[in-house]
From TrEMBL:
Homotetramer. One of its GO terms (cellular component) is cytoplasm. InterPro entries: Cys/Met-Metab_PyrdxlP-dep_enz, Cys_met_metab_PP, O-succ-hSer_sulfhydrylase, PyrdxlP-dep_Trfase, PyrdxlP-dep_Trfase_major, PyrdxlP-dep_Trfase_small. This is O-succinylhomoserine sulfhydrylase. It comes from the Bacteria. The gene is metZ. Its cofactor is pyridoxal 5'-phosphate. Pathway: Amino-acid biosynthesis; L-methionine biosynthesis via de novo pathway; L-homocysteine from O-succinyl-L-homoserine: step 1/1. The keyword Iron does not apply. The lineage of its organism: Bacteria, Pseudomonadati, Pseudomonadota, Betaproteobacteria, Neisseriales. The modification N6-(pyridoxal phosphate)lysine is found at K213. Keywords: Amino-acid biosynthesis, Methionine biosynthesis, Pyridoxal phosphate, Transferase. GO terms for biological process: 'de novo' L-methionine biosynthetic process; homocysteine biosynthetic process; transsulfuration. Belongs to the trans-sulfuration enzymes family. MetZ subfamily.
Length: 395
């Protein structure tokens, strides 16, 4: 039910993004149907018993799974090259489900120190309360991951490229370290999406997603997912059906249409981002640009081997600190002032005073989140209009 069909292996990802996981009802509708129902009926008591015991496959209750959610899971699994996916209510729900499935009191996690803020809080706040310790390491220093391993280490957690400085970590090399110590390698593939990077094919055991970002692509709904081998995802599924961070059928229906255009969107958004990154790097008011597609990026060679393109996020430091950075943010008329990303609408944010405002100024400085730093998530508008919009505030 949640497995991609075997002949899907020969189709291109662009085709799978549209065709994989289609489920048609008895009405044979051509567009994706939306099954809004909390429960499903049974022909007999015996059938109900068999379904609940897992002896036959089918639908019982939408916390377990739902046809629309199942279609989304099958499609995403096909795109990530995984055997199976389980969808969740948000990206954080997916990350939490993985942690609660595979960790217990006394276990240790090695994680990138450059993480989405709520993921850091989940590890160093929530899980620490339950006796799970985390060591945070430089994601680009593969040796640091090996050095951090303890006898109790169970799981490695990585985001690449990182937010907002686009540091690129070597998934294959870090996965080797993880496996040498019998640890699970989990990669948050939110920034690249399967259109640019397939961590499972590089050796990761599980991919987690915030479907809220590029998978939807239009900033409409929250969603998340965990993708990987059937034997691992089955365990996450058992946790999700018990604990309940399930994806809503409506959100799955929205995300299925988002996936149809994922490859087109990513191709165009990356091309525009690459153009703007090159233009920003040559601009006299810009001190530094962070973009994996630029030869000046410290991990450019690795990024070009690991990803199909540089991505759609460009971070840059303007000369003149906070005042100059805020002037750019306050001057834009096309680009949205919001911290979200992954949308067809371009967004700009000043990390030091928003997403990273809660950490101390010293820690911010050490992490490279300087006052002049801006993060631009490039959307689908014409790149000339975006360039013109930024030029006005750069002076
Ligand atoms: C947004 C985001 C998340 C969290 O996803 P939600 O859907 O907001 O819960 C996790 N990781 C990364 C890299 C993100 O950008």
């Amino acid at each position: 039910m949640t497995h991609p069909q075997s002949d899907e292996a020969v189709l291109h990802p662009e085709t799978l993004a549209i065709r994989a996981g289609r489920e048609t009802s008895q009405y044979r509708e051509h567009s994706q149907s939306l099954q809004l129902t909390s429960s499903f009926t049974f022909d007999t008591a015996e059938e109900a018993a068999a379904l609940f015991a897992g002896q036959v496959e089918g639908y019982t209750y939408s916390r377990f799974t739902n046809p629309t959610v199942s279609a989304f899971q099958q499609r995403l699994a096909a795109l990530e090259g995984g055997e199976r996916a389980i969808a969740t209510s948000s990206g954080m729900a997916a990350i939490q489900a993985v942690m609660l499935t595979f960790l217990k009191t006394g276990d240790h996690v090695v994680s990138s120190r450059s993480l989405f803020g709520s993921t850091t809080n989940l590890l160093s706040g929530v899980l620490a309360r339950f006796g799970v310790e985390t060591t945070f390491v430089d994601p680009t220093d593969t040796a640091a991951w090996a050095d951090a391993v303890r006898p109790t280490t169970r799981l490695f957690f990585l985001e690449t490229p990182s937010n907002p400085l686009t540091e690129v970590a070597d998934i294959a090399a870090i996965a080797q370290v993880a496996h040498a110590h019998d640890c699970l390698m989990v990669v948050d593939n939110c920034f690249c999406s399967p259109a640019l990077q397939q961590p499972l094919t590089l050796g990761a055991d599980l991919v987690v997603h915030s479907a809220t970002k590029y998978l939807d692509g239009h900033g409409r709904v929250l969603g998340g997912a965990v993708v990987g081998a059937d034997r691992l995802v089955e365990q996450v599924y058992l946790h999700v059906r018990t604990a309940g961070p399930t994806m809503a059928a409506f959100n799955a229906w929205v995300l299925l249409s988002g996936l149809e255009t994922l490859y087109l969107r990513m191709e165009r958004q990356c091309a525009s981002a690459a153009r703007l990154a090159a233009w920003l790097e040559a601009h006299p008011s810009v001190e530094r640009v962070y973009y994996p597609g630029l030869p000046s990026h410290p991990q450019h060679v690795l990024a070009m081997r690991q990803q199909k393109a540089g991505g759609a996020v460009v971070s840059f430091v303007v000369k003149g600190g906070r005042e100059a950075a805020w002037r750019v943010v306050d001057t834009v008329q096309v680009i949205s002032r919001t911290a979200n990303l992954g949308d067809v609408k371009s967004t700009i944010t000043h990390p030091a005073s928003t997403t990273h405002a809660r950490i101390t100024p010293e820690a911010r400085q050490a992490a490279g989140i300087v006052e002049g730093l801006l993060r631009l998530a490039v959307g689908l508008e014409h790149p000339d209009d975006l360039q013109h919009d930024l030029a006005a505030g750069l002076g």
